[in-house]
Structures are given as structure tokens and as C-alpha cells.
Amino acid sequence: MEFGQLRVGLVGTGPWAARVHAPGLAEHPGTVLSAVWSRRPDAAQSLAKTYDAVAAGSIDELFDQVDAIAFAVPPAVQAEIAPRAAAAGKHLILEKPIAADLPGAQRLADAVTEAGVASLVMLTLRFAPETRDWLDGINQAGGWRGGGARWLSGALLGGQYAGSAWRQDPSGGALADIGPHAFDLLDAALGRITEVLAAHCGAEDLWHVLLAHENGATSTATLTLRLPVRPTVAEVAVYGEHGYRRFSRSGTAAESYTALLDDFAAMVSSGISTHPCDVRRGVHLAWIVDQVRALTGR
Q1: Is residue 296 part of a domain?
Q2: Any idea where the GFO/IDH/MocA-like oxidoreductase domain is (predicted)?
């Protein structure tokens, strides 16, 4: 470990933890993967060994060895452990959704605020350099009247995430998994979302959502993880006084995670605890998901 590096503990050992979190933390100059904890000790031992980290025997043991915690676990598990981590003074890298429901998200945010620790939510698209450039151009131009997001995928039909119980749950699926990404980008491009005007969920976990923004713009989001669309369609567009501008997903999750860690290390070093993608952003996105569920009975 180099001087000044953040000692980060990883909670979770699933595909996302192994593919993105662990290598990202180990390779970033501002962080070191110090310890791993999982409810499956053998998995924690295996992943920790790969990166010369320690497999913690308990969550409290993990807390004792690190400055920050990165989560790669289901929302309900994150909402259970993350407030304890914040109370222990640990800075947090959170997955979306930050909790299984809105009350859980608010409790987590309250714990983070009370502790004064830094937090970031892993909104993969938002941290991509290409997305940041697109949003900068959108916000500088202004005058947008509406927009839409489409995320069409067959990720839950097969593959490494198809066995994820929280994603397969009727209240989860595309709404909980990719909904936060879509709502976040529409919100960032068009202004804060203030109301869910309409929502419908049909077959194949196909969601259609109509949103109102604070400046009078409206937008739509179409989401599914159960249609055999290859390659995945993940795009956002806005339209208004300056025509029509579209952005499609590009880059890799690893590149986005590196950008997140750049911001995270800078926040901790400078003592800053606020960021456009901090835990409060997670609560706002949880509120949108909660409104959609209320309209659809999910």
C-alpha cells in the first residue's frame, strides 16, 4: 500500500464484485483493496487471495481494517450493512438501488449525513467520460422540452446475472436494476424529476414511464431486461430549441469505476461529503422508483 491510499473493504463476491469492484480498487492509484467479506467465507477467501487482501471473518472485522467500504450485494443487504459502516466512520461506495425501498434508502442517507462520511452511488453511465461530455453540452445549450430513455436487454434471460434473486423479483427487474440509470440521466439532462405522470408494466418486464421535470419538460423511459435484444440498446435523447441530441452507451464499466474512484479519493482527501451522485441522489432515484411502483401496484 502506498502512502495516502484509501484502504477499501469489499462487501460481496458475486460477478460484479469480481469483474469491476475488486480489480478497480486494486489497480487505482488512490485505493487499495485491503479486505473482503461475504456471507460465503470460501468465496471471500478466494477473491481476497487474488488481490493479496484479507478475508475478514465478520463484518465488524472488516470495519476494523479499512477506511472505506465498497458494496456489491443485493439492495436489502446493502441497506442493512451500510448504515452500520457509516456509523463506524467508513466512507461508502454504494450500488444502485441503494436500498430495496424508499424508507430503507432514507435511513441509509440519514446515517451517512449524521456520520459526515463521503458516499458515491455506482451509476455506471453517469461516470463515463463520454456521458459527462454529453451532459455538459446539453446543460450549456438549455432550452430542452422533452426527452426519452430506452434500455432494452435480455440480461435476465440468461448469463451471469440471470440468477440474481432481487432482479428476478416482480418488484425488482428492470425497474430496480436499470431504472435508476435511466432516471438519473433524464434528470441530469432535463432537470429534476418532480412527478411520475404515468407508468405501466407489461409482459417481459417491459416498463413504460412518463415523467415530469421541474422546468416543465417531460420525458419517457422504456425499460426491460427480458427481451432478446442483441446488442443491448441503452440510449438517451433530448429535444428542444437546439434540435435533437442522442447519446448511446459507450465505454466500459471498468472505465466508469475508475472515474468514480477518482472522485471518491478526491472527496475523502479534501473532506468533502457532497457530490451530484452521492447517497442523496440514491434517495431521489429511490423516490422515483417508489412512485412508479405505487402507480403499477408492484
Answers
A1: no
A2: 164-243
CA separation for the pair 111, 238 (Å, rounded): 36
**Rg (alpha carbons) of the chain, rounded to whole number:** 19
- The amino acid present at 130, given as its one-letter code, is E
Q: What per-residue confidence (pLDDT) applies to 294? A: 96
Residues 233 and 198 in one domain: yes
**Confidence (pLDDT) at 204:** 83
The x, y and z cell numbers of residue 118, run together, are 463521503
Question: What's the rounded Cα separation, in Å, for the pair 22 and 203?
Answer: 36
Model pLDDT, residue 2: 54
Give buried/exposed letters for 102-121 (b at 16+ CB in 10 A, else e).
Answer: bebbbbbbebbbebebbbbb
Looking at residue 156, the DSSP 8-state letter turns out to be G
**Domain encompassing residue 219:** 129-250
Residue 298 counted as domain residue: no
**What is the 8-class DSSP label of residue 17?**
I
Q: Residue holding cell 428542444?
A: 240
Among all chains, which residue has been given the C-alpha cell 452511488?
A: 121
Q: pLDDT tens digit string along 211-240?
A: 999 999 999 999 999 999 889 899 999 999
Q: Is residue 42 part of a domain?
A: yes
Pair 119, 181 in one domain: no
Q: 212 and 156 share a domain?
A: yes
Do 96 and 80 share a structural domain?
yes
The mean pLDDT of 4-10, rounded to a whole number, is 93
C-alpha distances in Å from residue 253, one per residue of 141, 165, 200, 227, 272 = 28, 22, 29, 22, 25
- Residue 295 region by backbone torsions, left for phi larger than 0, else alpha for psi between -120 and 50, else beta: alpha
Query: Quick one: DSSP state of residue 221?
Result: E
Statement: residue 15 has pLDDT above 70: yes
